[in-house]
Write a structure and sequence with these properties.
- The protein has about 170 residues and is an alpha+beta fold.
- It is built from four helices and nine strands; from the N terminus they run E-H-E-H-E-E-E-H-E-E-E-E-H.
- It has helices at about 20-30, 50-60, 110-120, 160-165, and strands at about 15, 35-45, 65-70, 80-85, 105, 125, 130, 140-145, 150-155.
- A hairpin with a 5-residue loop joins strand 3 (about 65-70) and strand 4 (about 80-85).
- The chain is globular and about 60 Å long.
């Protein structure tokens, strides 16, 4: 008998590049309620520290410094915010058909209130709130944008609950 040694890996964090680190920390902490675990700080290109060398390994040599901040969700998922002084200051065109990261999703049972808050911080609602099982179950979803043009999704219920009932079939 073959034993499957594979197991589901947990999600640690996501890195998001933003045009303004202070505005992004304000949005994600005040609107999303994410905890600030490391205030914005500067990282300079240098080989004398482990962080400096690691960033050279990741970003190469075509940079001098950037800003970084760390936040965390209620379930301990990290949100690593980056702001590079020489980067393009707008999100790429939304194109889910191309290979790459398409979106991330957050969960909030009060989807209407969260969308209102996103809008009050200059974010956007990209579609009407939709139900997976109209008149049967209260599972709702909606795509939105933060004020920087980064697209994400909101679910009212867990991923497992939403899809375990067969959301795409009768």
């Amino acid at each position: 008998m073959t034993i499957n040694k594979n197991y589901p890996k947990s999600f640690s964090h996501i890195g998001i590049t933003v045009p303004n680190i202070e505005e992004a920390v304000k949005f994600y902490s005040e609107v999303m309620g994410w905890y600030i675990i490391m205030q914005p700080s500067k990282v300079k290109k240098e080989k004398e520290t482990a962080i400096g060398q690691m960033c050279i390994d990741v970003f190469g040599n075509d940079w001098d410094e950037f800003e970084i901040a760390h936040l965390a969700t209620s379930d301990g998922i990290g949100i690593e915010l980056f702001s590079f002084p020489n980067g393009i200051k707008e999100a790429p065109e939304f194109n889910p058909f191309n290979t790459g990261l398409f979106h991330f999703c957050v969960q909030d049972p009060n989807i209407e209130e969260l969308i209102d808050k996103i809008l009050s911080y200059r974010g956007k609602q990209r579609m009407p709130i939709r139900e997976y099982y109209p008149n049967e179950k209260p599972f709702k979803m909606c795509y939105v944008e933060d004020p920087f043009g980064i697209v994400f999704e909101i679910y009212t219920h867990s991923y497992e609950l939403t899809y375990s009932s067969g959301a795409y079939s009768k």
